[in-house]
């Protein structure tokens, strides 16, 4: 098992090298001059040049690239101009914020979408099937920033049930000590219930927004793959053998229908992690997506490169995890290098 | 289950499931809430030292509140809002200022201490000013605007006495010492943290405050929040009432407004104009609107290329701008018009002031015909997407209006990161932009924006020997105190600029600040950012 994982990781190397080269070139090819941007509104030509030299942007591209790769091998992703801190520090502190939000959103979504999908498949054509279709269509066709703003409007502005949408914690609660970076876990570990509650109440709306958006792919995929499995012969055999409906559906049918669902989950997760920029913007969430977009708008190269690289690594790890899960779910699937 | 019953149950369930929000605040929290000011804004600092490489404008706000300068400005009342008085200085770290013919001598307050307890000495002052003229980039540029360019100009007389030698007579030297840039830094502390590659310790001050100011940064998470606490040993002025400032970054304008309206945030100042108008009429918050000092939004034209090299064409465009529509539909009235002065109104010795242009399509057509473009021409108007909220509708209105005189305009949206690069190239034929100067003097504005030495703010590449003579004359007259000549020259340069019309002034934008009713003490400063030191929460 370990050797196969090792082999798998080796094949990833060329992908990563490609990602490094492409992001480096792409960020350089973008219009916009970071030196002019960071020289400030009142800078003279000389001031812009001074800044260009101090940022090392006056050097030829190959030299800049070699320096970048050299720094990378030492785990240094460079410094962010827009926040003034090393990119590694920023990503380490922001990734858990995005991951906590995305995971919670995904778990919520799974809890709703999977049962909904199964029911829709079992009772095809019934009202629950139609509900599933409506919910999925509505969820996927509402843009996340709209759902987010709507939820804020209703639950914060009108009803006042939800706390102010200003990030992971309200301004007067202090963050729990940093063990995992997941506030929910950190506050639980230290037994700080007040922080736990504050964190959870901040999380509910953005997580619900993500959940609504990701319902569709999961519910539809569950339904489709359940339908295929329910029509197969072994299910008919099981039914014919007099097994009760529950056993047939959960133990036999669903287990076999899980493979495509797991694939979808993996895809949805990695997609959400990078694409929840809008949710992060609406809820002032200090996540990784809003950081990357902000950096991009300011032609701040280092964070953009760091972000793409982190995402590539995450994606690779996630795929590996899913492949391993396949083997657990269906022993017929072999993990091959 | 009946429908009505179901709904009832569902609502009850939802109500209990909702986690109690900020309504559950224990008494300790309530106390700290009272002594804390919660500010929300769109973006935060990237560096808390104004001398840093590429420090952004929010960073200036931190510097202003966490560092002291030798001197600052008194306040005066303008339309009910305290407004900095350009001509009256108040002592901050200095207890006395003596301005001579070619130098100014400052006595430092004897009990002034940096936040780590070391006394403030003339050595620190010299080191700080040396730093501001040596680090390059914006700080050095701002210092040079007041003829402060060389470390030799800064002299330590004794531990408590410091002198600035003037390079030449310049009326802007003393005002420049009161800007944000010449802040006084704890030199020993920073030197300890400096390296050979970084002799001025910029890496250290980027993340740490090392001043004697009224506040110190106790926590800063870039892009998320800045927390500042009061320095109880501050001697620069009256001790502030607010113990703690929490500055949260909330990118969504809608949410900033919701936070204000729900009473969760105390202050916000970068909301769309429409929101400010609605908030004002709702009357739940106090809204203060003040025109930018020495700032104008304008339409610029590149005078080096046809057709805009022809003054007649530029005047025609100036007559075809839908001024009033822009004021109403884009700004919702929250701006001060820079157009439409009465035809017989005399030119004032002031800047900004209104032009005599109004929307007059017939006149624009006639001027275009005279210039040899009876059927108009095609061109492109560019704007900065970073301020799309105002710029985009403004350009659409201009496009629509210019079409009436036959000028076909296409719109070019330029991303914020790219805007300055494009502006510096000076090749855009037609564009809209804002310029505003910290030092509120007409000649200061004109040196940057109209003078033939072609600074980067002379975005039109305007060259006029007549105008240059007036500007240079005004600068010299101001330095020598020749009032009559100064006034004549200022009028001269304004008249020349309005006749040649290389840039069309549209309006003075407003700084809009929204506060809870129990928050008082807002002051307008030349830098347009907040001064926390005077805020009081009732």
Order of helices and strands of chain A: HHHHHHHHHHHHHH
Distinct helical segment count of chain B? 18
Distance between the termini of chain A: 10 Å
Count of alpha and pi helical runs of chain A = 14
Can you walk me through this structure?
- The complex is a heterodimer of chains A (337) and B (538).
- Chain A is mainly α.
- Chain A has helices spanning 2-29, 34-38, 45-54, 61-73, 87-122, 127-141, 144-158, 183-189, 193-230, 233-240, 245-275, 277-282, 288-297, 301-329.
- Chain A has 14 helices and no strands.
- The longest helix of chain A has 38 residues, at 193-230.
- Chain A starts with a helix and ends in an 8-residue tail after the last helix.
- Chain B has 538 residues and is an alpha+beta fold.
- Chain B has 18 helices and 20 strands.
- Chain B has helices at 3-17, 27-34, 57-66, 122-134, 137-144, 173-177, 187-192, 202-207, 253-261, 273-282, 311-320, 323-330, 361-370, 388-403, 416-425, 442-449, 465-480, 483-500, and strands at residues 36-41, 71-78, 81-91, 94-99, 103-108, 154-158, 161-165, 215-221, 225-230, 244-249, 267-268, 285-291, 295-301, 335-337, 378-384, 408-414, 430-436, 503-516, 519-520, 536-537.
- In chain B, the strands form four sheets. In chain B, strands 1, 8, 9, 10, 11, 12, 13, 14, 15, 16, 17 and 18 form a twelve-stranded mixed sheet that branches.
- Chain B is 35% helix and 23% strand.
- In chain B, 49% of the residues are buried.
- Chains A and B meet through helix 2, helix 3, helix 7, helix 9 and helix 13 of A and helix 2, strand 1, helix 5, strand 10 and helix 9 of B.
Give the gist of this structure.
The complex is a heterodimer of chains A (337) and B (538). Chain A has helices at residues 2-29, 34-38, 45-54, 61-73, 87-122, 127-141, 144-158, 183-189, 193-230, 233-240, 245-275, 277-282, 288-297, 301-329.
What is the secondary structure topology, with strand pairs?
The complex is a heterodimer of chains A (337) and B (538).
Chain A: H1 2-29, H2 34-38, H3 45-54, H4 61-73, H5 87-122, H6 127-141, H7 144-158, H8 183-189, H9 193-230, H10 233-240, H11 245-275, H12 277-282, H13 288-297, H14 301-329
Helix pairs in contact in A: 1-14, 5-6, 5-9, 5-11, 6-9, 7-9, 8-9, 9-11, 10-11, 11-14, 13-14
Chain B: H1 3-17, H2 27-34, E1 36-41, H3 57-66, E2 71-78, E3 81-91, E4 94-99, E5 103-108, H4 122-134, H5 137-144, E6 154-158, E7 161-165, H6 173-177, H7 187-192, H8 202-207, E8 215-221, E9 225-230, E10 244-249, H9 253-261, E11 267-268, H10 273-282, E12 285-291, E13 295-301, H11 311-320, H12 323-330, E14 335-337, H13 361-370, E15 378-384, H14 388-403, E16 408-414, H15 416-425, E17 430-436, H16 442-449, H17 465-480, H18 483-500, E18 503-516, E19 519-520, E20 536-537
Parallel strand pairs in B: 1-10, 1-11, 15-16, 15-17
Antiparallel strand pairs in B: 2-3, 4-5, 5-7, 6-7, 8-9, 9-10, 11-18, 12-18, 13-17, 13-18, 14-18, 19-20
């Amino acid at each position: 098992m370990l050797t196969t994982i090792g082999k798998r990781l080796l094949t990833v190397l060329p992908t990563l090298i490609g990602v490094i080269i492409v992001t480096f070139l792409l960020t350089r090819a973008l219009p916009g001059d970071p030196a002019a941007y960071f020289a400030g509104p009142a800078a003279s030509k000389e001031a812009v040049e001074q800044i260009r030299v101090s940022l090392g942007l006056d050097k030829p591209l190959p030299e800049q690239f070699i320096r970048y790769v050299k720094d990378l091998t030492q785990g240094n992703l460079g410094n962010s101009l827009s926040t003034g801190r090393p990119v590694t520090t920023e990503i380490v502190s922001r990734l858990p914020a995005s991951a906590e939000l995305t995971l919670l959103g995904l778990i919520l979504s799974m809890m709703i979408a999977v049962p909904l999908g199964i029911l829709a498949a079992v009772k095809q054509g019934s009202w629950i099937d139609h509900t599933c279709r409506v919910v999925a269509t509505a969820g996927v066709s509402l843009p996340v920033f709209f759902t987010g703003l709507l939820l804020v409007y209703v639950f914060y502005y009108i009803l006042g049930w939800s706390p102010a949408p200003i990030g992971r914690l309200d301004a007067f609660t202090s963050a729990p000590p940093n063990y995992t970076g997941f506030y929910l876990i950190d506050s639980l570990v230290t037994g700080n219930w007040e922080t736990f509650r504050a964190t959870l109440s901040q999380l509910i709306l953005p997580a619900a927004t993500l959940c609504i958006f990701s319902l569709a792919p999961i519910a539809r995929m569950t339904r489709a793959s359940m339908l295929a499995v329910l029509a197969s012969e072994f299910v008919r055999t099981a039914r014919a053998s007099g097994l009760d409906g529950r056993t047939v559906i959960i133990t036999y049918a669903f287990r076999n229908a899980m493979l495509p669902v797991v694939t979808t989950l993996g895809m949805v997760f990695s997609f959400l992690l990078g694409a929840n920029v809008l949710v992060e913007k609406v809820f002032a969430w200090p996540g990784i997506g809003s950081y990357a977009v902000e950096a991009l708008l300011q032609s701040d190269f280092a964070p953009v490169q760091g972000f793409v690289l982190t995402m590539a690594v995450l994606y690779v790890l996630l795929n590996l995890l899913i492949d391993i899960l396949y083997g657990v779910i269906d022993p017929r699937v072999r993990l091959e290098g | 289950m009946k429908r009505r019953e179901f709904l009832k149950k569902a609502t009850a369930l939802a109500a209990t499931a909702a986690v109690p929000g900020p309504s559950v605040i224990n008494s300790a929290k309530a106390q700290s809430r009272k002594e804390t000011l919660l500010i929300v804004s769109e973006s935060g600092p990237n560096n808390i030292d104004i001398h840093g490489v590429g420090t952004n404008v929010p960073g200036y706000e931190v510097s202003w509140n966490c560092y002291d300068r030798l001197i600052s400005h008194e306040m005066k009342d303008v339309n009910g809002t305290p407004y900095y008085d350009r001509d009256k200085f108040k002592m901050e770290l200095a207890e006395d200022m003596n301005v001579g013919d070619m130098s100014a001598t400052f006595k430092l307050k004897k009990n002034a201490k940096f936040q780590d307890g070391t006394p403030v000495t003339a050595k620190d002052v010299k080191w700080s000013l040396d730093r501001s003229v040596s680090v390059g980039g914006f700080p050095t540029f701002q210092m040079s605007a007041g003829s402060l360019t060389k470390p030799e100009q800064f002299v330590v007389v004794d531990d408590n006495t410091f002198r600035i030698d003037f390079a030449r007579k310049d009326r802007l030297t003393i005002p420049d010492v009161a800007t944000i840039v010449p802040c006084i830094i704890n030199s020993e502390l920073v030197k300890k943290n400096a390296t050979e590659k970084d002799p001025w310790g910029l890496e250290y001050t980027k993340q740490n405050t090392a001043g004697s100011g009224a506040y110190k940064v106790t926590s800063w998470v870039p892009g998320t929040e800045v927390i500042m606490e009061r320095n109880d040993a501050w001697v620069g002025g009256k001790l502030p009432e607010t113990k703690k400032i929490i500055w949260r970054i909330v990118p969504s304008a809608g949410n900033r407004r919701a936070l204000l309206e729900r009473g969760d945030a105390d202050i916000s100042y970068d909301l769309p104009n429409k929101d400010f108008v609605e908030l004002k009429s709702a009357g739940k918050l106090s809204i203060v609107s003040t025109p930018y000092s020495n700032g104008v939004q304008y339409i610029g034209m590149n005078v080096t290329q046809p057709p805009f090299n022809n003054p007649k064409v530029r005047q025609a465009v100036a007559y075809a701008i839908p001024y009033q529509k822009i004021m109403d539909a884009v700004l919702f009235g929250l701006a001060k018009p820079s157009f439409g002065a009465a035809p017989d109104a005399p030119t004032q010795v002031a800047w900004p002031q209104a032009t005599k242009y109004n929307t007059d399509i017939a006149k624009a057509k006639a001027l275009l015909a005279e210039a040899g473009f009876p059927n108009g021409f095609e061109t492109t108007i560019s704007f900065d997407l970073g301020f799309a909220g105002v710029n985009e509708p403004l350009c659409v209105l201009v496009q629509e209006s210019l079409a009436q005189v036959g000028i076909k305009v296409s719109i070019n949206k330029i991303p914020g990161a790219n805007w300055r690069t494009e502006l510096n190239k000076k090749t855009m034929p037609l564009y809209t932009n804002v310029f505003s100067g910290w030092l509120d003097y007409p000649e200061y504005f004109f040196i940057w924006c109209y003078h033939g030495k072609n600074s980067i703010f002379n975005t039109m590449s305007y060259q006029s020997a007549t105008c240059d003579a007036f500007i240079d004359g005004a600068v010299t007259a101001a330095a020598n105190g020749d009032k009559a000549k100064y006034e004549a020259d200022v009028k001269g340069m304004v008249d020349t600029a309005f006749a040649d019309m290389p840039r069309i002034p549209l309006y003075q934008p407003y700084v809009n600040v929204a506060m809870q009713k129990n928050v008082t003490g807002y002051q307008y400063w030349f830098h347009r950012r907040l001064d926390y030191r005077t805020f009081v929460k009732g």
